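Fold this sequence, please.
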Amino acid sequence: MKPIRLLPSLLPLLLTATAFAAEPARERVAVVTGMPGLVAFWDFVKREPSGDQRFTAHVPAGAPTDYPLDAGNYIRQYWDAGREATYADFPLLGRGPFGQAIRIVRETDPDFRPFLYVPRSRLHDTPLDIKGPGRSVTVVVWAIRESGNHALAGIWHEGTDLKQAETATIARVERGQRQYALFAGLNKAGSACGHVSENGASSFLNRYALHKCNSAAQAPEVPADAPAATLDAAWHTFAMTFDDATDELTGWLDGVAGDRWLDQPKNDKLIASAHRAYLQGHYARQPGRQAGEEADFPSDQYYNPPEDTPLATEILRDTPDERIERRTYRYTKIEVVLRKGADGRLTEASRDLVALRLNPWWYPHGLYAPKDASSGGPFTIGRVIHSARSVGFTGWIGGVAVYDRALTPEELVRLAAIRGPAAD
């Protein structure tokens, strides 16, 4: 992996991180809520004043709701198995970046996968329901990662319609309802992995959604029952931004994105589908039928990041009749075979995608827009609804914030400077 490079303008901000360690929780909350574009911020301190006293979000003045979180077990909801979840299933740490944190436990009962969530009926068409063309989003989660690489927070109902062993006894089958979410790495465990979808379902004819990014840095595993001093030093700030203006989806760990590339994507178990989508899009732009072209490949699933002027060109071989070049663009690296024609000019004979940029990831679509509440997913924290029923991320979550724009690098560094327990 290449070393992570920081913008010079960010270095002074990173050096101020220690100053935040002594800040009271209320001042840290003010930093989060004071950034323009805030939709909701759960610090796991703010609760309903009466009744069930559920966790509620800090929201802007005039917001239609403060998004109280229910406790649920999605195995019970979709398989009619397992027990109901309650707030007792989310142990409290008693401290955290904003004064409190919840634990996502490494559950051993395969019929028990609890999460905290805002039902779709209470979020549809509210500011949290960020969807459609022209919309940008940022999700930030302060967490200690004990294990796992799956969901931290977002609107990401993966669907329960996949045909696999776990769904043989399912009672409630639903198509995917993905919009946006932040994960603890997925294919790069411990990285900040942003995930978005334009259709709620799959990408590039794969069974899974594949528009995702991975920060260069990765958070290590720390036992959730480690001594207090160890936990206090183990907080990390996971974040994802999708900027519709640049079509870039970026993962940030502790305020740093970093470059991440995947070499030979055609050999990757999942990203091979993006390699296929790249070639099919390229073939479709050429006159006539190309060798390897699939006439029935859907055009809305082509994946062809912009390749205007190469950032770098390396000549791998040059003979009187043929030249092979490796061209590096912002999101792709390709190898092109050029052959000399009868007129002496070199023309492209073939190409291959030999590397694909994972951070930032090029995403040219809008966010999935459910037509009504019945076709949209809930906002969940700690887990998402999915067919595999795996345990997912485990550890501590001390804060979840959502903004309806892509925060700047400077703003993300400022949020990442909130580390360790808040002062009383």
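The chain has two domains: 8-257+363-416, 265-359. The CA atoms of residues 38 and 403 lie 4 Å apart.
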